[in-house]
Amino acid sequence: MQPTFPAESYYMTIFAVLFGLAVGSFLNVVIYRLPKIIERQWRAEHAGLDEEKTASASTDRFNLLVPRSACPACGHGITAAENIPIVSYTLLGGKCSACRAPISPRYPIVETLSGILSGYLAWRLGLGITLVGALLFTWSMIALAFIDLETSYLPDDLTLPLLWAGLLFNLGGTYTDLQSAVIGAAGGYLVLWSVFWLYKLATGKDGMGHGDFKLLAAIGAWLGWKMLPLVILLSSFVGAMVGVSLIVLARHGRDVPIPFGPYLAAAGLVALLFGEALNRYYLGFF
């Protein structure tokens, strides 16, 4: 993808940054609530609830929109003034206004990432279907990375729709041709699936979760099979460096699993933004 830099893009970039901050605020809701929603659904399906209990449980609504956001420590309802991206966190000093319990720094980090990346994409790509898809891909990568960091889980509710969306966007060759997208989806899944089973056969242990297969498949569906070596190389290298650092510096146990999804997501974003240039540079060695 080549930069466009039209003069009017500056206004669009400012709007994209502000809109991206607002989306980042919603992504925080997704990151916090979606794993809990899935866990509730799983428990309801496997707990053998009778009809009366099921009906009672169904009245306790918990989804991405309700109930209203509240402090997990004291239950204080978050007001509109306390929900302004980045600004509210700064003014509150990173603490709940009611009980002064600390607020996770994940909130401003996600909002900042979403705002900056949204603005950069708008500035680089200009208004069009390519920008729409790139924003959806980027916001999904952010949400999946932080969900995996906090829960070691990559929900099918995000990875599978993302995979299908990538194929649909590439029906018209938005990021790559459809053939490359289909091969990328299949190849992305099969590569990590093969690694998983080779490791399991060799050690008797699970080396990664199945969500990682689906995430790489989704990245392949969006960016095509040619980007897969770059994504695998980047994510594996960074993941290995971080893993070794945690073991050496933070006394992280060797048997404690380290989520791989954040590295895949980060590598997918790098491939989206700079993949063509990096591939040319990489292939230049050969």
DSSP strand tally: 0
Shape: globular
Structure class? mainly alpha
Give start-end ranges of low-pLDDT stretches.
54-58
Number of helices: 10
How much is the average pLDDT? Answer: 86
The main pleated sheet reads as: none
What fraction, in percent, of the residue positions are helical? 55-70%
What is the alpha-carbon Rg in Å?
Answer: 21 Å
H/E topology pattern: HHHHHHHHHH
Distance between the termini: 23 Å
Strand content of the residues, in percent? under 5%
Describe this structure as you would to a colleague.
This protein has 286 residues and is mainly α. The chain contains ten helices and no strands. The two termini are 23 Å apart. Mean pLDDT is 86; it is low at 54-58.
Describe how the helices and strands are arranged.
Layout: H1 9-46, H2 51-58, H3 87-91, H4 106-125, H5 129-151, H6 156-169, H7 178-203, H8 210-223, H9 228-249, H10 261-284
Helix pairs in contact: 1-4, 1-5, 4-5, 5-6, 5-10, 6-8, 7-8, 8-10, 9-10
Task: Give the key terms.
286 residues, mainly alpha, globular
How would you briefly describe this protein structure?
This protein is 68% helix and 0% strand.
